[in-house]
Design brief:
Blueprint (H helix, E strand, L loop, with lengths): L9 H21 L1 H23 L12 H18 L5 H22 L9 H18 L3 H19 L2 H25 L3
Helix pairs in contact: 2-7, 4-5, 5-6, 5-7, 6-7
Length: 190
């Protein structure tokens, strides 16, 4: 009778780890739609906010309402994909929990943003850097990890500039941190 706890060789252990990374990479690649969707929505909202503030529109923050349909679409896509997932590795679960935690943090910041006069752009960019960088590291996709670093750098720069310029930097940050890596991931042949 075979024992339940077999001792794996070094090569077998490396093969299992490599298989998990490939599977996580494939699952994240299929989920690149979220990076593309949110990269486009947040870039447009930042550019809209920048333009509306320069034109002295009285309620420039209304541009952020474009995030509402994006949330609905995200929930719908997530629900549909959840029904079709055949296999999830431990790394997939960690990555999913990381992004769910991020979503909760962003919702909390947005909900209580009035406490800091809605000066959220630098904070959101810095918080966004964490799951982006970690996901890029988990799946060994360098452009996504670099995107996380760029979100962090632009978040710091946003603290150093005022008013509308934060939103222009935010648009550049999200384009370089989410949108471009998402498109690269989508088109990656691996």
């Amino acid at each position: 009778m075979e024992t339940e706890n077999q001792i794996l060789s070094t090569q077998q252990s490396l093969d299992i780890i490599t298989k998990m990374i490939r599977q996580a990479h494939g699952n994240v690649k299929r989920s690149s739609i979220y990076l593309i969707l949110w990269g486009a929505v947040i870039t447009l909202a930042n550019l809209g906010m920048f333009g509306l503030m320069w034109s002295e529109y009285p309620r420039p923050y209304l541009v952020w309402l474009i995030a509402v349909p994006a949330w609905i679409l995200t929930i719908y896509i997530s629900y549909r994909r959840g029904k079709n997932v055949s296999a999830r590795s431990h790394l997939d679960r960690i990555n999913a929990i990381l992004w769910y935690s991020y979503g909760i943090a962003i919702f909390t910041l947005t909900f209580f943003g009035y406490k800091i006069n809605y000066q959220l752009n630098p904070i959101i960019l810095i918080v966004s850097a964490i799951p982006t960088f970690v996901s890029g590291t988990i799946i060994k996709f360098r452009p996504l990890a670099i995107g996380g670093i760029l979100l962090w750098v632009f978040g710091i720069l946003c603290f150093l500039v005022g008013g509308p310029w934060q939103y222009l930097l935010g648009a550049i940050a999200v384009t370089s941190g989410y949108l471009i890596p998402g498109l690269m991931l989508r088109n990656n042949p691996d």
